[in-house]
Design goal:
This is BED-type domain-containing protein. By secondary structure, this protein is an alpha+beta fold. It is built from ten helices and five strands. The strands form two sheets. The chain has a three-stranded antiparallel β-sheet with strand order 1-2-3, with helices on one face. α5 (about 165-180) packs across α7 and α6 (about 180-195) crosses α8 (about 225-235).
Length: about 270
Amino acid sequence: MIVIDELPFSFVEKEGFQKFMSKACPKLDRFSRRTVARDVYQLYLNEKNNLKKVFASNKYRVCLTTDCWTSIQNLNYMVITAHFIDDEWQLHKRILNFCQIDDHKGDTIGKLIESCLLKWGIDKVFTITMNNWGGLVLNGDYLHVRCYTHIINLIVTEGLKEMNNSISSIRNAVKYVRSSPARLIRFRKCVEHEKLDSKRIVVMDVPTRWNSTYLMLESALVYQKAFERLEDDDGFYRSYFEEKEGGKTKDWATGTYRLGECKCVE
C-alpha cells in the first residue's frame, strides 16, 4: 500500500491508520516508519537482484532511455530506464537508476550510463551509443537518434530570444517572490489587497523544459496588479533589480509588466 499509493513512511504511525488496523487485524503489532523504510528498501534489493538474474540468464538486447531535468532548487537529476522484450514477446520497462548529476553534458551522462550498465551486468544495448562499448548492432554506427523533445526545446528557446528581456524581467520578479518565505507572505498580502480571485502560485521555469516558461508567464500574468502593488509597497523589491547579476543589472519588471509581449507568448 505504501509503495503503490506513494504514501509517506510515517503514514503507519498516524492515528487513523492505527485505528483502522486495530479493527481490521487486532493481532497486528504496531510498527514504525523505520520498519517500513527498512522493508521497502529490502524489497527494492530483492527486486534488483531478480532483475539482474533476468539480464544475466537471458541476454536480452536492452533499449535505454534517459531523462534529465533541473529542479526548482537548481539541482540536476537523471533517470535511466531499460526497455526489453521477453521470450513471450511482452514489453517490459524497468528503472535502472535515478540519481543527481553534476550537469547535463554528454560526457557526464555517458559516464553515468556506462557505470550503470556495468553495475547491472548489461552488455547488449540496442538503441544507445556509448564510447568504447562492444556488443552493439553494426557497431552502433546507425543508432544515434536525437531526442525530439530536446529539439522542440531548442526551437522554442530560439524563438523566445526575440522577447528575452521581457521574459527575463518577469523571471526575476518571480524569483524575488519565491526566494524567501517572508517575500512570499508580502506578495500574498498584495494579492489579497488587490482582491485577486486566484489560488494559484507563481512558478519558476527551468531551461530544459520549454513549456515551463509558458506556465511561468501564465501564472505571473494573473498577478500583474499584485506585482505592481509589490513595487510600491516593498522597498526591497526595486533594490533587488538594482543588484548586478553576471556583471550587469537585472532586467527590470516595470509597472507596465511588458504585458503585450507576454501575451504574444501565450
